Amino acid sequence: MEFMQPEEELKLIAEYNRRFPYKVELHVHLDGAVRPETVLEIAREREMTDKLPHKTVEELNRDVILVEPSSLERLLLSFSYFMPIITGCRKAVSRIAYERCEDAAKHSIRYMEIRYSPHLFANTVDNGYATEKGDLTPRDVVLAVNEALERGMKDFGVTVRSILCCMTHQPEWAPEVLALCDEFRDQGVVGIDLAGMEFEPGTPAEECAIKKVFKKAEKCGIHRTVHAGESGTARAVKEAIDHFRAERVGHGYHAYDDRDVYEKVIREHIHLETCPISSIMSRACEADPQIHPLKQFVKDGVSYSINTDDPVVLGNTLTDDFKFAGDMGLTDEEIIRGIFNAARSCFASYDERKRIVRELKQVYGDH
Ligand SMILES: [Zn+2]
């Protein structure tokens, strides 16, 4: 991402808030949306500055933010700089969840689903981030996030729901993720996701622990989204739909590479949570925005939305992604259609979804 001067950025945000005063975001990771200033402050508070080689926001950003198209592996590597500072600390988890609400409100996001792996913030499990064992369980993490989001919603006037992530490299965590989705379904947890490096398609559904968990989620009435077709193929998107019973797919760009899969996505009204800037920086898509699959999705009547994914690593905001979609050739009307698609595909309760769509119509007219 190019860096803008603060005044320029404020002007851009104000302009986009005028054009799109009610935004909906479905795909953003809590651990990918941490403020760099907060990471530095928490490191000082927890006396962990020896674990962080950076003293200033600029230094931290230099290592964490991708400045040119890289890879999904490189994107995930950025997390290893700052996650050990947050993991295992209830106060830190609570703070980043609360601040996320404030950051969302700044960009006129009125409904947001934030996703995270409770296990990656806990220190009772081996997650590669916790610097020492402690007593913060994945369940405690969910409690802390729920409480912080409640406060954030009240203080900043944004509705926030959460999605709990299973991680591809840790299938043994998946049953507990499902249990937490079930336990907290009335306290803002609205769905389950599969994140991390993209899963390899090909394992029979009955042999894959995570696929079994997603099937159970469907039975329990828990909404499902899966990262697929980002670094992976159309086949992964097909399995996300058929085996994981995904109602939405995170990214899903490569569905377009296979006619049958692409038609299936359209026919079965699978919503694709596109993240335009992320897709270029992770090299999921060609660097030339003029041939971005999102343009095709718009033309072909796919249900798409526009999202940020991991702002701390990409240096982006939802305003930037809306602008990027515009630079790609999407009209304001097409961007607004993406907002309506997001609202209609969100995992909130039926009544809440209806309320959001009604509010959108008041702002943008019928769509
Ligand atoms: Zn993602």
Automatic annotation (TrEMBL):
Signal peptide positions (record): none
Keyword Cell membrane set for record: no
Adenosine deaminase domain location: 23-362
Keyword vocabulary terms for this entry: Hydrolase, Metal-binding, Zinc
InterPro entries, per database record: A/AMP_deam_AS, A_deaminase_dom, Ado/ade_deaminase, Metal_Hydrolase
GO cellular component: cytosol; external side of plasma membrane
Family indicated by similarity: Belongs to the metallo-dependent hydrolases superfamily. Adenosine and AMP deaminases family.
Protein name listed in UniProt: Adenosine deaminase
Organism of derivation: Dreissena polymorpha
